[in-house]
Amino acid sequence: MGSLAEGARRATRCRSRKLATLRAMGCRRSRCVPRVLRRRFVYVAARKASDVEPSRKRQRLQEPPATGQCRPAERASANGVAQHAGDVRQASVVAGAAEDKRAKVDRAVAVGRLRKTETTFSVSAASPPAAGIAHDQQVKCELAVDVREARAKLRVLIEDDPFGDCPAPVSSFEALGALPEYALRSLRRHGIESPMPIQAQALPLVLKGRDVIGLAQTGSGKTLAFLLPAAVRIERRLTQSSPRSAATQALVLAPTRELAVQIADEATKIFSDSPVWVACVYGGGDRRTQEKRLSQGAHIVAATPGRLIDFANTGAAQLDVVSYFVLDEADRMLDLGFHDDVVGIAARLRPKRQTLFFSATWGGEVQDLARSLCAGDRRPVRISYAQQGCRGGFGGATAAAAGAAGTGGEAKQRAREDIVQEVVVVDSPGQGHWERQETIKNERLDLHLREVLGASADHQVLVFVSQKALADKVSRKLWQDGFQADAMHGGKSQENRLWVLDQFRKGKLRLLVCTDVLGRGIDIPSVSHVVIHEMGEIEDYVHRIGRTARGKHGKGHALVFFEFWEGAPHLAADLAAVLEASKQHVPEDLRRIAGEVASGRRAVRR
Q: Residue ranges of the Helicase C-terminal domain (predicted)?
């Protein structure tokens, strides 16, 4: 009986040791692990213990153990199995985390966000958990640094990111992984191989479904930044075969007719191989033709506010299903007095929509308009390109901080550094100085235009003047001398203006003299030189010289005549600041005038 009781106790102790071993392996019950696997772990642990102390183990096995006492080999077996199981689990966790991180970095390398040579992986199966966490943090830091470097290289800045999840910029359109094939083919057909800086950051952000406020100067490529995501959205709707699939789904508002036509033309290029229909609505065009186009169905509508409101009131334009709303050149829209019209149009759209808001400046009125369009919990991300930084937030902590620091002001103006800015100061005080200065300017203008047009047949010149008569005079004189020149101003019909603009864009005209009708938004990539006959506000100056440096060489030249006027004494200092910010030469006469205004030696109009 004693031997039977002792055997039962030994069996119970053996079973207890097995259960303890399995618990150390992470199993609550022995049935969770197959019997063969349990025996294998015990066998391996016993072999490990025997290899460590073979002589002592053999000696102890020959001695009978005391009652209630387990042999050292058995303790070593349990401890070895527990340690081995812990090592296996730890190694699998660390290796799994490394594999996940390696996969993330490989995807980043594939889309061009990270250079693989900057990241190294060294993971040991026996690495402690702290090493795995440190490695994970190291990889995250490397990724974040690389994204910051990419944005700095592109001169793109994330001004406000309420949710903190702004994606990294992309280096190619294919890296987006969402654009329809017809859109990619269209881009390749028109020679567009890689996204411009504002597109590189805005495209993944818009495709993520976020509302976006983009601050960038004219000519930065904003049009494709909102047209390409529209292709993705409309493609998704077309596959759903909605009964109202031909209804307007994307609406783009523009302040001028010319800009609306240009946006519609760009959209037509992108969607030329697709079933997507594009319509353009603007005042001054044939009303019946536009109304017929809307009645046939248009997925994308580019419009000016006035004419669109007319069609919406008559029922020709159905805006209740629009889920993608774009406001281009918002600051210019406010300058032209379209604030109430824009707000009224937005009220006709679906409340649950995606809103994109593009502007060159970020003043108080522009912020108020953006706040009214992006109401509710749709907090937008604000990004800027080639700006010195924009004060003023949109909501939450950022807005509170901006309010504590001061009211939101204009973004500091800065022209692109690839535009050579030449400022000619025409300052002739005294009686009749305006007449003398006008004569000097016209003589210098005529000489400059002939030099530029005669230097190369590839040169195209855009001249901004303030008077219709002067535009006709300059263009007519150069036309008579054998140069392909024409004028474009508000005194000509809309059809004539569009025809002249098309001729200039195609290169059949080498010189175009225009007034403010071509001040903003119009994209003419082949312009090599810009001339500003009358210096206006600094914002208009930056927009106008932005017409150049868009061609294949990416370089341009801008000539501006500066005349001091008592009604705008600040322009001298503002222009000097723009030149310095753009690393351009500042004439000494301009510095002198700015200093005289600051010291009170120049008479100003209060």
A: 444-594
Give me 151's structure tokens. 């944005």
Residues 138 and 186 reside in one and the same domain: no
Together in a domain, 96 and 86: no
Distant-in-sequence, close-in-space partners of 175: CB < 8 Å, separation ≥ 6: 110, 111, 112
Q: Tokens representing 186? A: 């269209």
How many residues comprise the chain? Answer: 606
Q: Which residue has the tokens 């997507």?
A: 276
Using alpha carbons, list the distances in angstroms from residue 374 to 43, 219, 347, 353, 391. Answer: 68, 25, 11, 9, 19
List the domain range (segments joined by +) for residue 120.
92-149
With a CB cutoff of 8 Å and minimum separation 6, the contacts of 592 are none
Higher-confidence residue of 158 and 431: namely 158
Across 567-583, b (16+ Cβ under 10 Å) vs e yields: eebebbbbbbbbbeebe
Query: What phi and psi values does residue 55 have, to the nearest 5 degrees?
Result: -70, -45
Indicate the pTM of the whole model.
0.63
State the total domains in the chain. 4
| 236 and 196 both lie in a single domain | yes
User: Quick one: 9 and 55 in the same domain?
Assistant: yes
Q: What pLDDT, in 10s, does the model give residues 162-187?
A: 988 899 999 999 999 999 999 999 99
Three-state DSSP class for residue 229: helix
Q: Which of 90, 107, 139 is the last residue of a domain?
A: 90
